[in-house]
Design goal:
Number of strands: 17
CATH topology of the largest domain: Rossmann fold
Largest sheet: 9 strands, mixed
Number of helices: 6
Strand order of the largest sheet: 3-4-5-2-1-6-7-8-9
Radius of gyration: 22 Å
CATH architecture of the largest domain: 3-Layer(aba) Sandwich
Order of helices and strands: EHEHEEHEHEEEEEEEEEEEEHH
Number of domains: 2
CATH class of the largest domain: Alpha Beta
Distance between the termini: 67 Å
């Protein structure tokens, strides 16, 4: 018999893209209730592994993680009782005060702060550039591929956005495709297709966009979305044997880092409260003299 009320701690994740989904998986698996806050029309590229797709379809499943769209916070409890994440259209985070979460994690990956502050929760964590650890949030997590990926930053910023995609199997800039013009997307290929260099991928209005390299089409923005010129719209992985239906190594790394950051901050807060409640230790005069000659 299910309890009338789910007493697990609530974690709010701002953003529901592929990296945010990696974060959500770690917290759901370790026993938390997840509330994802998204925009009205998410523009995730790696849609097969992004819980934000539930905004359009009402429901999404990535590996063992299920997510259901809610229209009001009162519906979240039923999701949590079923072991699902709840996702709500709330780009401004207006619901956070009502939810009173144990933590707020900004995983929008906008490369700038979209309004997350330390006052939103006792524990605040942000992924990537645009946040000052110790001021904007308590901890920032490095998202740049390389030796420091997943590093916890306690004071200062993550590495600035270089504008250059991380290298995968020798490909960097060419593997990411940006919209050559403003318009609506019409698909000619689907996520999971192996495409050849020069093969048509999609059309933006009357403009054909072709594959710059041969590989697996692992990311493609939702059909019908209106995009701006220069917007990221597709991603090709030259490793054709990659499982495009599973969470990436980067997303898993960042999810683990976020979980580490949460428990570290929680332990520090609990210790701080314990220290405040402890009676002051009596220092004998003689000992005090020894310490202050």
């Amino acid at each position: 018999m299910k309890p009338d009320r789910n007493e697990k701690e609530i974690i709010v994740i701002r953003g529901g893209g592929d990296l945010a989904t990696g974060v959500a998986q770690k917290f759901i698996r370790t026993g938390f209730n997840i509330l994802i806050l998204e925009v009205e029309s998410p523009t995730a590229i790696r849609r097969s592994v992004a819980l934000s797709e539930a905004i359009y379809d009402g429901y999404a499943k990535v590996e063992d993680i299920r997510c259901r769209k809610i229209n009001d916070l009162s519906e979240a409890e039923s999701c949590w009782n079923e072991g699902e994440a709840a996702i709500l259209v709330d780009p401004g985070g207006m619901s956070i005060n009502e939810v009173k979460p144990a933590a707020v994690i900004d995983a929008i990956i906008a490369k700038r702060n979209m309004g997350t502050t330390r006052c939103m929760a006792d524990i605040t964590i942000a992924l990537g550039p645009g946040f000052y650890a110790g001021k904007d949030v308590h901890i920032v997590i490095e998202t740049l591929r390389g030796h420091d990926l997943g590093r916890l930053i306690f004071d200062g910023y993550a590495a600035p956005d270089t504008g250059i995609p991380g290298e995968l199997a020798g490909e960097s800039v060419r593997r990411v495709i940006h919209a050559p013009q403003k318009g609506s997307i019409i698909h000619k290929k689907q996520i999971g297709n192996v495409v050849k260099q020069g093969e048509e991928l999609f059309i933006i209005d009357n403009t054909e966009v072709c594959a710059p390299i041969t590989g697996l089409l692992r990311g493609l923005i939702r059909e019908g979305i209106r995009v701006d010129q220069g917007m990221k719209v597709a991603d090709i992985d030259s490793r054709t044997d990659v499982d495009w239906n599973t969470i990436s190594d980067k997303a898993r790394c960042l999810g683990g880092a976020a979980l580490e950051a949460f428990f570290l901050l929680k332990k520090r807060r609990e210790q701080s409260v314990k220290d405040e409640l402890s009676p002051h230790k009596f220092v004998p005069p003689q000992a005090a003299e020894w310490n202050n000659p």
